[in-house]
Model the fold of this input.
Amino acid sequence: MAQLPSYKDRNFIAIIGDEDSVTGLLLAGIGHVNGPKKNFLVVDNKTPISKIENTFVEFTSRKDIAIVLINQHVADDIRQLVDDHDQAFPTVLEIPSKDHPYER
Amino acid sequence: MEEICIKLDKVLLEYMDLISIYQENWQKISKDLECGYLQLAHSKYTMGPGRLSKDQFDGRMQAVTRSLISEVEEEILKEHNYQFTLINGYLENDDIIPDESESNQINNNSSTLRRRNIKESETEPNVTTKTEQPSKKQIVRDPIHWFGLLVPSTLRESQKHFKQSLVNMVGLLNIRNEILMKEVQFKKLKNQKEMIMQELIKSKESINEEKKTQENAL
Done:
């Protein structure tokens, strides 16, 4: 059987954001838990930046994630990492949050 | 030369159109998310504190909305572009999760065995129905039920808005890919045009030089 290209295995949509964004998008049905592996991270005031960085690196290196959604204000905290990500998959998309509406 | 210029204009116009569609899409996403957040806040108020938080998330959740990536071939440049599509439900190669309804059925079958005054012929159909059922059976669980069976209508409204915003987000990513593709096309066509221009200049220079040599010879 012919081997499928690597992007065919990428089906999940991951999210890093505040509680409302994560709750809303999990309500839309993107949440997936496989043992210790989750495809979401709830960020609040107490979340250390190192944890956000590690999660972002984990999501961008996983082979089953197609899209990484991240709140704009969270992306600003790890701007260097987000800007350095230049691979086609997973695609990173910054989304607005409740307290930080979309900035053009 | 004219052909390339026409192509360049066409690509540039398409590029501008895509950017305006991209911005429209962004506004739609912002609006949907805004409505979603508002309805979510209303639900939090209705349901009371702590009823709609990350603590209520199902620890065994399975994704019911996923994205598929497909390859699309660009007509002009014969290059590959990727397109995202959203799908609902599980995929064929998903792990089998023991389902509550299935386990209930097994319990029912075992309870029939406990009945004493029962004929064998009566029990047989039950066994056959059990074997006929597909081994892989997954029910799409609505994540809204993590927060209770009777949830406020505002939470359902919020879910709708978030679903719509997710559809728009995937559309936005596809538009972004197309914009990047157009940029590549534009650069290639511009390079081609510059090459042709340089060739034209060179040929003009050579003609001028020939003319000068002929004049000098005369």
About this structure: Chain B has one domain: 2-97+138-217.
